[in-house]
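Budget justification aside, the reviewers requested a transparent look at the raw inputs and outputs of the sequence design task funded under Objective 1. We therefore reproduce one unedited record. The lines immediately below are the structure tokens for a 193-residue chain.
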């Protein structure tokens, strides 16, 4: 039994959840998302009570038990995405590093001999608060926002992969809430032997 899978999903005001065969469609003020439900899982929508419940038809099968909580979490993320949306704050540390939005493309200057360009997915918005770093202490800051949590997380991971933070000075691209463990550099001692 999945404890997460057994929880009902409350449908907020202004959000509509529909089921057509195995396809679940969620629409709200921020947009609409859809997903196919896996065969051993059954989704029941109670519009009058304003809840969605996810049932496991085969609790003895291991794969069905694994999918039970996963499907419930994915549907809950869709409901949250179309009503409130998701956002991820990111920071770029390093002298001379910067980030620019050039008409649907994010361009990073992060210490390579060339700029790194990523195409922004159409359902994702980028808001750049601080475009360039000032020394190693004041980072460039930008925020990614989307209705689809999976798309947002994957794009944020792709950005971080360009230049992950290094452990000595902390230079690189990181999530705003990420803690980078720092290492101590080489220690120079006096040469008395």
């Amino acid at each position: 039994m999945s404890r997460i899978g057994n929880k009902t999903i409350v449908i907020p005001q202004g959000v509509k959840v529909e089921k057509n065969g195995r396809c679940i469609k969620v629409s709200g003020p921020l947009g609409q998302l859809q997903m196919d439900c896996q065969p051993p899982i059954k989704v029941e929508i109670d519009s009058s009570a304003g809840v969605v419940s996810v049932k496991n038809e085969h609790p003895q099968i291991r794969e069905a038990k694994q999918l039970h909580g996963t499907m419930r979490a994915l549907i809950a993320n869709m409901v949250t995405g179309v009503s409130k949306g998701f956002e991820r704050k990111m920071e770029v540390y390093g002298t001379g590093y910067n980030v620019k939005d050039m008409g649907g493309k994010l361009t990073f200057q992060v210490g390579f001999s060339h700029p790194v360009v990523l195409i922004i997915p159409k359902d994702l918005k980028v808001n750049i608060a601080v475009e360039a770093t000032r020394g190693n202490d004041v980072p460039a800051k930008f925020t990614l926002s989307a209705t689809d949590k999976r798309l947002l997380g994957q794009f944020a991971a792709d950005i971080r992969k360009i230049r992950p933070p290094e452990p000595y000075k902390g230079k690189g691209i990181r999530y705003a809430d990420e803690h980078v463990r720092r290492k101590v550099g080489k220690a120079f001692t006096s040469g008395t032997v």
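The longest helix spans residues 62-83. Helices lie at 3-6, 62-83, 149-162. Computational costs for records of this kind are itemized in the attached budget.
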